[in-house]
Amino acid sequence: MKLYNFFRSGTSHRLRIALNLKGLQTEYVAVDLRTEQHLKDEFKAVNPQMLVPALAVDGKVLIQSPAIIEWLEETHPTPALLPTDADDRAHVRALAALVGCDIHPVNNRRILEYLRKTLSADEAAVNAWCATWITAGFDAYEALLAADTKRGSFSFGNTPTIADVYLIPQVESARRFKVDLSRWPRISAVDAACAELDAFKNAAPLVQPDAG
Ligand SMILES: N[C@@H](CCC(=O)N[C@@H](CS)C(=O)NCC(=O)O)C(=O)O
Predict the structure, then answer these.
(1) Residue 212 has pLDDT above 90, yes or no
(2) Is residue 207 part of a domain?
(3) Residue 65, Cα to own-chain centre: how many angstroms?
(4) C-alpha 38 to ligand 1 mean position (Å)
(5) Same structural domain for residues 141 and 97?
(6) N or C: where does the chain have the smaller number of CB atoms within 10 Å of the terminal CB?
(7) DSSP code of 42?
(8) Of 60, 78, 96, which one is at a domain's C-terminal end?
(9) Which residue is closest in CA terms to ligand 1's atom 20?
(10) Confidence of residue 52 (pLDDT cuts 50, 70, 90)
């Protein structure tokens, strides 16, 4: 399997965590978003949407991290990243979607570039934009964690689920945008629990071959 990704991309980070939790090795193909390699024809031929990550496997290319993570769960069911009960699965998928659908997309590089270049936003305004949407999402995520009386060390239960796979890269991004995480003690505790695990450690942006 070939993983087209970028060390600092949150969606790449989440896919690396999922692959590591499943114990799967991939060939790392760096696509540098800083030099806009993703907008070149070579990568457009891999993913017409020109976004990372993409996973090439058995002659096909899978795109969209939620679809790839669900595909991994279906093709490599052990260890499971979703609970067995349908209600619990809906809860874990909702936590993941809160990050994946409602926080990450509005803070994506191309959105921030539009704010900078088309709307003339300065870096302070861009950081305030990101902090606004991270705060709105994390306030809700924290409330959902607080309401879950069965919760262990992770976002759901005592083992990592796809909720953690989505949450940790967003925490990393919050740090990058200088958002004070002390407002969310439960999210911070989940982050600390995940940081103990090799699957998360080895997926971190700064330990990737293209980090710099
Ligand atoms: N929904 C897509 C989003 C992918 C995405 O937005 N990737 C970002 C990096 S985190 C990207 O390639 N951005 C390039 C850009 O914004 O120009 C997924 O989850 O795979």
Answers:
(1) no
(2) no
(3) 8
(4) 10
(5) yes
(6) C
(7) H
(8) 78
(9) 64
(10) very high
